[in-house]
Structure formats: structure tokens, C-alpha cells
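Subject: Sanity check before I submit

Could someone independently write out the C-alpha cells for this chain? I want to compare against mine line by line before I put it in a report. The sequence has 135 residues.
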Amino acid sequence: MSGKLLLAVISTAFLIVLTSSVPVPVVASEPETDEVVDRIRVVAPRVTRSSRGSGRYVVETAERSDYVYYGDLDLTRTTDLFELQDRIGEMATEICELLTEMFPRGSPSTATCIQRAIDDASPLVDAAARAAIGK
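---
Independent answer below. Compare away.
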């Protein structure tokens, strides 16, 4: 097969795959909002540094996140608020330990990563509690 013919066949195949995998837009019955209800996003940071020869280093930032569901809790009750904080701590531990496995030479330490993830989620917990009290 000549180079031009091969290129034409590959281009056509690529175009068919590309157009067949284009998602069809769906019209939502309700307008989308940025507000996520009944869950809090827990984000864990990780910074890595790798050598790129001749003494140069490249610094990369990695991040993982996951959501903690609290729709089954009554945040007007202290025990349920503590339960939400426990869930956030468990999720922070899980994702920080995963990042440590993925980037063993990265920073911060796992303990610091967990604390930062918990601290970053705290304002969201406070806002959810205030919203529950205001209902």
C-alpha cells in the first residue's frame, strides 16, 4: 500500500471513530448549578520533585479528591456533626495514603497532608451545619 493511500485510510478511520464517539448533548430539565448538595469534597495535595539531568529539578503538584456524603446525618445534632468530621478524617487519610503510595518521595508528609485536607474541608462543614440550623 502506498504511503498516501495508507494515510488516507488511517485518517478516514480516525475520523469515523472520532465522530462516532462524540457525546450527544442532553437537555437537562432543571438548570445546572455549581452547588453540590449533601456532600463535601475532601482534597489532598502532594508535591513531587524529580531530577531532569544536569542538576535540574522539575516540581510537580499532584492532587486527589473524593466526596464525603452527609445526607443521612442531621447536622443540627452534635453527634452527627462529629460523625461528619470523622468521615472527613477517614477520607483524608485514605486519599493522602494513596498519594503517598503513588509519590513516595513527595511532600508534605502523610500526617500533614491529612491535616491540610481536614482543615480545607472545615469551612464546608461549618457552612453545611449553618445551613442545617437555618432550615
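---
OP: Matches mine. For the report I'm noting this point. DSSP finds three helices and two strands in the chain.
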